[in-house]
Specification:
Four copies of one chain form a homotetramer. In chain A, 69% of the residues lie in helices and 0% in strands. With 210 residues, the first copy, chain A, is mainly α. Residues 1-7 of chain A have low confidence and may be disordered. Chain C binds a DNA duplex (21 and 21 nucleotides) through helix 1 and helix 3.
Chain lengths: 210, 210, 210, 210
DNA sequence: CATGAATGAGGATTCATTCAT
DNA sequence: AATGAATGAATCCTCATTCAT
């Protein structure tokens, strides 16, 4: 919530430009890597001049926090939609999470790759995301699992749920981004098959007998 | 004008030069990302002239197959060393694999990042390494698990072992490469802690009661 | 990314820059051959930066159409001036044309050489000059001869006049550009002497008795 | 005639290399201009090493005198063949010369272009040609015309014959080398048509009534 | 001697950034 | 403010020439 809740035309225009440039970035990322995109290219795709770009941003890297924030929004929306689902069992939760995560990663893979590969800028990225705390989002995913606390028998349920979420995302992401490369080729399964295997892997962990 | 971007050396000296340049690449990767390394830097670190670089390689990217091959060697050696270990139980196998994998990834993280970054070159990369079949290497890791076949109760033991290997590598790699970023932050655990948690996650899967 | 290698300028300043670079090319051609002129040299002589050169032209060769166009202008002006002259006889026409052509070639020899050298670009060159049709210019020269149609007895007066113009230019050009080389040395005469000989050669052709 | 008329094996080998390189030059000139041919290319095409090239020649330009000499041989042979022909009239001489010259130029156009465009090296070129004096060759062509001295009525028969030879060569060369460019386009005629027109142009000159 | 690997000066080219319009 | 032309440092890349093998 900004202090001043009335947006002036000036701010309005500025926001538009920002949005245009971000869209241009998304567009360009489909074709090539962040480091190979030039500012001229961005400006051209956004329909603004390079001068205008520099009025808004210090340099190309300064777009990344925006990309990260924007991604945060999508992530948040996605989690929203997951939270609205009704689940009957822990098993169903894991199954749904796996499939949905895969789809989500597939749709956002260029952003993931960009943020990963430019992770040297992590500090700025993390600082920038004032609106949505990323960790909180992942906890909301954990919480979906923890709704079925009764079924979970492993010690340290919260940590366990976190780990499950982490493994789901990271393994699927690897399959999505680098299907033919180390380490993804360690498992012969295609990503869709693997998404179905994941619940079978993780359910026993959460529900193991003591 | 060779089709291929790597010239087959006809003299002993050439092979030395190639090795020098590869070493220089490894050296530079400690400091900075592949994209930011210049040819001049490589040449200088290798103690050769830029012209020599160009005599051997079409461009910087043409070094990557060499990096990939070289990495294949290291990987193979590492698996060799793991195969020589004696294990008492499946649990111990998983514990050792987790810790050792973490260490190995830590030592080779810049190579992983570089190869991932340039994964668009996957075909060339994969074709480039005729000496070591990457999939076979990972199967050797699986086989270490499968030594304790008797303890494994899950259906599809081979696939299961593959999946376990894949999850160990991919989750640890994420923690190693991007500890503060999506998705690694989904789990609060530090990489060393997580390496100890992994066996607890994966053992139940392999040994789950029907 | 324009198809064409010459960018159409959108600002007045651009046109100036273009003119500056063309002038720089003319200046440099006095000293050396086109092949030996560097972009830096051109930029420096034009008083602009190398980047500016590249903003306007894809490469050095892309200047040639401009050179060709510019030469077209000069050619046209020169023919203008010839058309304004008053002649008393066909003989006088040929005498004047020979001398004037020699002078004109002498002044433009570096341009001729450059355009010849790069004649592989003929199509582009020819297409590049939409403002002045080169063939029409030469026809205007022919027409000066054809003013004295009555004196001309040879069959096919138009073609004959064309051939005369062609021979005047080509033979003098050879003498001017390569005075000591094949085929110019075939005739011992200096270019000035030869320019005076030409009318004697060509007049009989035009006025030969049947 | 060399002082020492016995050629040692060493000289023999050297001569071979020289011949190979000259052939390579001819071969390359079909594709591209002299200035774009690299020494590596020449060496490769000649089947020798660059080092060997440098053992024989100071630089690429040093090949030009060889090219010029070699061309001198062909020219001489060609004139030989012309001298052997029997002519019935001056008209026939001119007709034959035109056609034959055209053919000869066509076959040697890359050499002509190369020598013309590198004419800055004229002095060296001229000096180099010790075996065959170029001017003498052209005089032999003139002499073929002068065989029909009786038919020639113009004053200064020798100079006139020279001029005729010069015009035949220079105009046809222009048509052959730069058919679509200034000044060749001044005359609409194709080179074969023009070769037939030339005698009609030049005969009246030589045989003009006083 | 022949070879071809190595050299590095020199020229080409890009693109983030500035600044006049 | 917005534009896009201009800048020039930084990097790429070539190729004549040298020199170790």
């Amino acid at each position: 919530m900004p202090e001043n809740s009335v947006i002036t035309p000036k701010q309005q225009r500025s926001l538009e430009t920002q949005r245009k440039l971000l869209n241009a970035l998304h567009f360009c990322l489909k074709d090539k890597f962040f480091e190979h995109i030039t500012i001229q290219e961005l400006a051209q795709n956004a329909g603004v001049s390079v001068g205008t770009f520099y009025r808004r941003f210090k340099d190309k890297e300064s777009l990344l926090p925006l990309l990260y924030q924007d991604f945060g929004q999508r992530l948040s929306c996605w989690v929203d939609s997951l939270e609205k689902l009704e689940f009957k069992s822990l098993k169903q939760v894991l199954e749904t999470l796996s499939i949905e995560t895969w789809q989500f990663l597939e749709e956002n893979k260029s952003v993931f790759r960009t943020l990963h590969l430019n992770s040297r800028l992590q500090t700025e990225l993390l600082d920038s995301d004032t609106s949505v705390d990323r960790k909180v989002i992942y906890q909301r995913l954990s919480n979906i699992i923890l709704c079925f606390k009764k079924e979970i028998t492993v010690a340290g349920k919260t940590n366990a749920a976190d780990s499950v979420i982490f493994i789901i995302i990271t393994s699927l992401l690897d399959k999505v981004l680098y299907p033919d490369l180390t380490p993804a080729i360690a498992s012969k399964l295609e990503v869709n098959k693997f998404a179905k295997e994941l619940p079978k892997i993780l359910l026993p962990y959460l529900t193991a007998e003591k």
